[in-house]
Amino acid sequence: MKTKSVILAILFTVLIPMTAFALVMTYDTLPTQTVGGMPVDVTVTFTTSLNTITITADNDIVNPTSVIQNLSGIAFVTSIGSTSGLLDGGTTRTQFVEGNGSFQTSPVAVPTSTYWALQTNYLGGLLLYATMPDGTLIGEPLSGNYSAANGSIAGNGPHNPFTYGTTTFTLTASGVTAGTSIVGPITLFFGTSGDSVAVPEPTTMLLFGFGLIGLAAGTRRFKR
Prior knowledge:
globular; 2 helices; 5-stranded antiparallel sheet; alpha+beta
Protein backbone atom coordinates (compact mmCIF):
# COMPACT_ATOMS: atom_id res chain seq x y z
CA MET A 1 0.00 0.00 0.00
CA LYS A 2 2.82 2.37 0.78
CA THR A 3 4.34 1.78 -2.67
CA LYS A 4 1.00 2.53 -4.33
CA SER A 5 0.67 5.75 -2.33
CA VAL A 6 4.14 6.87 -3.37
CA ILE A 7 3.34 6.19 -7.04
CA LEU A 8 0.11 8.17 -6.82
CA ALA A 9 1.94 11.04 -5.10
CA ILE A 10 4.50 11.11 -7.89
CA LEU A 11 1.75 11.15 -10.52
CA PHE A 12 -0.01 14.06 -8.86
CA THR A 13 3.15 16.09 -8.24
CA VAL A 14 4.59 15.49 -11.71
CA LEU A 15 1.66 15.14 -14.09
CA ILE A 16 -0.47 17.95 -12.70
CA PRO A 17 2.29 20.57 -13.11
CA MET A 18 2.92 19.11 -16.58
CA THR A 19 -0.65 19.92 -17.59
CA ALA A 20 0.05 23.57 -16.77
CA PHE A 21 3.12 23.57 -18.96
CA ALA A 22 1.50 21.59 -21.78
CA LEU A 23 -0.19 24.68 -23.16
CA VAL A 24 2.49 25.28 -25.74
CA MET A 25 0.41 25.24 -28.93
CA THR A 26 1.77 24.89 -32.44
CA TYR A 27 -0.29 25.74 -35.49
CA ASP A 28 0.67 24.51 -38.96
CA THR A 29 -1.03 25.48 -42.19
CA LEU A 30 -2.70 22.54 -43.87
CA PRO A 31 -0.98 21.00 -46.93
CA THR A 32 -3.94 22.03 -49.10
CA GLN A 33 -4.07 25.68 -48.07
CA THR A 34 -3.33 28.27 -50.72
CA VAL A 35 -3.58 32.02 -51.12
CA GLY A 36 -4.14 33.48 -54.57
CA GLY A 37 -3.48 30.06 -56.05
CA MET A 38 -0.09 29.85 -54.36
CA PRO A 39 0.76 27.27 -51.67
CA VAL A 40 1.49 28.61 -48.20
CA ASP A 41 3.36 26.83 -45.42
CA VAL A 42 3.74 28.48 -42.04
CA THR A 43 4.34 27.23 -38.50
CA VAL A 44 3.39 29.39 -35.51
CA THR A 45 4.00 28.39 -31.88
CA PHE A 46 2.49 30.11 -28.84
CA THR A 47 3.91 29.81 -25.32
CA THR A 48 2.21 31.48 -22.36
CA SER A 49 3.66 32.46 -19.00
CA LEU A 50 2.93 35.09 -16.37
CA ASN A 51 1.71 38.22 -18.22
CA THR A 52 3.62 37.08 -21.32
CA ILE A 53 2.84 35.48 -24.66
CA THR A 54 5.84 34.35 -26.68
CA ILE A 55 5.27 33.57 -30.34
CA THR A 56 7.63 32.05 -32.88
CA ALA A 57 6.87 32.06 -36.59
CA ASP A 58 8.56 30.24 -39.47
CA ASN A 59 7.75 30.50 -43.15
CA ASP A 60 8.53 27.00 -44.43
CA ILE A 61 7.96 27.71 -48.12
CA VAL A 62 11.17 27.07 -50.07
CA ASN A 63 11.94 29.28 -53.07
CA PRO A 64 8.71 31.32 -53.01
CA THR A 65 7.33 32.74 -56.24
CA SER A 66 5.27 35.66 -55.01
CA VAL A 67 5.08 37.99 -52.04
CA ILE A 68 1.59 36.56 -51.52
CA GLN A 69 3.33 33.53 -49.98
CA ASN A 70 4.96 35.72 -47.31
CA LEU A 71 3.44 35.80 -43.83
CA SER A 72 2.17 39.27 -42.99
CA GLY A 73 -0.11 38.80 -40.00
CA ILE A 74 -1.14 36.55 -37.10
CA ALA A 75 -4.53 37.03 -35.46
CA PHE A 76 -5.45 35.04 -32.37
CA VAL A 77 -7.72 34.89 -29.33
CA THR A 78 -6.70 33.80 -25.85
CA SER A 79 -8.82 31.74 -23.49
CA ILE A 80 -9.10 34.74 -21.13
CA GLY A 81 -10.11 37.12 -23.91
CA SER A 82 -7.00 39.32 -23.96
CA THR A 83 -7.58 42.38 -26.13
CA SER A 84 -4.68 44.55 -25.01
CA GLY A 85 -0.94 44.09 -24.86
CA LEU A 86 2.43 45.39 -25.93
CA LEU A 87 4.96 44.03 -28.40
CA ASP A 88 8.10 44.68 -26.38
CA GLY A 89 10.50 41.93 -27.39
CA GLY A 90 11.54 39.42 -30.00
CA THR A 91 14.05 39.29 -32.83
CA THR A 92 14.20 38.58 -36.54
CA ARG A 93 16.66 38.82 -39.39
CA THR A 94 16.20 40.59 -42.72
CA GLN A 95 16.57 39.38 -46.26
CA PHE A 96 17.08 41.73 -49.21
CA VAL A 97 16.38 39.96 -52.50
CA GLU A 98 18.09 41.35 -55.59
CA GLY A 99 16.56 41.37 -59.06
CA ASN A 100 18.51 38.28 -60.10
CA GLY A 101 17.29 36.27 -57.09
CA SER A 102 20.48 36.62 -55.06
CA PHE A 103 20.04 37.94 -51.55
CA GLN A 104 21.71 39.66 -48.64
CA THR A 105 20.94 38.50 -45.11
CA SER A 106 21.41 40.84 -42.18
CA PRO A 107 24.53 39.83 -40.24
CA VAL A 108 22.79 40.31 -36.89
CA ALA A 109 19.27 39.94 -35.59
CA VAL A 110 17.12 43.06 -35.26
CA PRO A 111 14.13 43.79 -33.00
CA THR A 112 10.97 42.36 -34.50
CA SER A 113 9.17 45.60 -33.68
CA THR A 114 11.24 47.30 -36.39
CA TYR A 115 9.04 45.63 -39.00
CA TRP A 116 6.03 44.30 -37.09
CA ALA A 117 3.45 45.85 -34.79
CA LEU A 118 0.63 44.75 -32.50
CA GLN A 119 -2.98 45.79 -33.02
CA THR A 120 -5.05 45.50 -29.86
CA ASN A 121 -8.76 44.74 -29.59
CA TYR A 122 -8.80 42.96 -32.95
CA LEU A 123 -12.02 40.94 -33.27
CA GLY A 124 -11.92 40.04 -29.61
CA GLY A 125 -8.22 39.26 -29.64
CA LEU A 126 -4.85 40.48 -30.87
CA LEU A 127 -3.22 40.92 -34.28
CA LEU A 128 0.48 40.94 -35.09
CA TYR A 129 1.10 42.45 -38.50
CA ALA A 130 3.98 43.45 -40.72
CA THR A 131 4.19 47.17 -41.28
CA MET A 132 3.51 47.41 -44.98
CA PRO A 133 4.79 47.23 -47.55
CA ASP A 134 8.03 45.77 -46.23
CA GLY A 135 8.64 43.36 -43.37
CA THR A 136 6.64 40.33 -44.51
CA LEU A 137 8.20 37.01 -43.49
CA ILE A 138 9.75 35.26 -46.50
CA GLY A 139 10.65 31.59 -46.88
CA GLU A 140 14.00 30.00 -47.65
CA PRO A 141 15.88 30.30 -50.97
CA LEU A 142 16.76 27.21 -52.98
CA SER A 143 20.44 26.41 -53.50
CA GLY A 144 21.42 29.94 -52.54
CA ASN A 145 19.00 31.74 -54.85
CA TYR A 146 15.38 32.83 -55.09
CA SER A 147 15.23 31.49 -58.62
CA ALA A 148 11.43 31.28 -58.74
CA ALA A 149 10.81 34.78 -57.41
CA ASN A 150 8.80 37.14 -59.58
CA GLY A 151 8.86 40.93 -59.50
CA SER A 152 6.88 41.11 -56.27
CA ILE A 153 9.95 39.71 -54.48
CA ALA A 154 13.08 40.00 -56.61
CA GLY A 155 14.34 43.56 -56.83
CA ASN A 156 11.12 45.00 -55.42
CA GLY A 157 12.24 48.06 -53.50
CA PRO A 158 8.99 48.78 -51.62
CA HIS A 159 8.75 45.15 -50.43
CA ASN A 160 12.38 44.82 -49.39
CA PRO A 161 13.80 44.02 -46.96
CA PHE A 162 11.76 41.01 -45.88
CA THR A 163 11.92 39.53 -42.42
CA TYR A 164 13.52 36.11 -42.53
CA GLY A 165 14.13 32.93 -40.54
CA THR A 166 12.63 32.06 -37.17
CA THR A 167 11.00 35.27 -36.00
CA THR A 168 10.03 35.73 -32.36
CA PHE A 169 7.52 38.05 -30.75
CA THR A 170 7.31 38.74 -27.02
CA LEU A 171 4.05 40.27 -25.90
CA THR A 172 3.24 41.64 -22.48
CA ALA A 173 -0.41 40.87 -21.81
CA SER A 174 -1.85 41.47 -18.37
CA GLY A 175 -3.69 38.51 -16.84
CA VAL A 176 -2.05 35.84 -18.99
CA THR A 177 -0.66 32.86 -17.07
CA ALA A 178 0.92 29.51 -17.89
CA GLY A 179 -2.62 28.15 -17.94
CA THR A 180 -3.82 30.54 -20.66
CA SER A 181 -4.39 28.81 -23.98
CA ILE A 182 -4.87 30.06 -27.52
CA VAL A 183 -8.37 29.45 -28.81
CA GLY A 184 -8.25 28.08 -32.34
CA PRO A 185 -8.56 28.58 -35.16
CA ILE A 186 -6.03 31.34 -35.65
CA THR A 187 -5.94 33.51 -38.78
CA LEU A 188 -2.78 33.96 -40.82
CA PHE A 189 -2.46 36.80 -43.30
CA PHE A 190 -0.29 36.72 -46.40
CA GLY A 191 1.17 39.17 -48.87
CA THR A 192 0.28 42.84 -48.98
CA SER A 193 -3.43 42.59 -49.81
CA GLY A 194 -4.86 41.13 -46.61
CA ASP A 195 -5.42 37.62 -47.96
CA SER A 196 -5.83 35.13 -45.13
CA VAL A 197 -6.39 31.51 -44.15
CA ALA A 198 -7.81 30.02 -40.98
CA VAL A 199 -5.63 27.39 -39.33
CA PRO A 200 -7.57 24.93 -37.16
CA GLU A 201 -6.71 24.21 -33.56
CA PRO A 202 -3.83 21.76 -33.26
CA THR A 203 -4.31 18.25 -31.86
CA THR A 204 -1.35 18.43 -29.47
CA MET A 205 -3.50 19.17 -26.44
CA LEU A 206 -5.90 16.35 -27.30
CA LEU A 207 -3.02 13.96 -27.78
CA PHE A 208 -1.65 15.02 -24.42
CA GLY A 209 -5.04 14.16 -22.93
CA PHE A 210 -4.95 10.72 -24.49
CA GLY A 211 -1.46 10.32 -23.07
CA LEU A 212 -2.76 11.02 -19.58
CA ILE A 213 -5.54 8.47 -20.11
CA GLY A 214 -2.94 5.91 -21.14
CA LEU A 215 -0.84 6.67 -18.08
CA ALA A 216 -3.88 6.34 -15.83
CA ALA A 217 -4.76 2.99 -17.39
CA GLY A 218 -1.20 1.81 -16.91
CA THR A 219 -1.36 2.86 -13.27
CA ARG A 220 -4.56 0.86 -12.75
CA ARG A 221 -2.96 -2.21 -14.29
CA PHE A 222 0.07 -1.73 -12.04
CA LYS A 223 -2.17 -1.58 -8.98
CA ARG A 224 -3.55 -4.99 -9.82
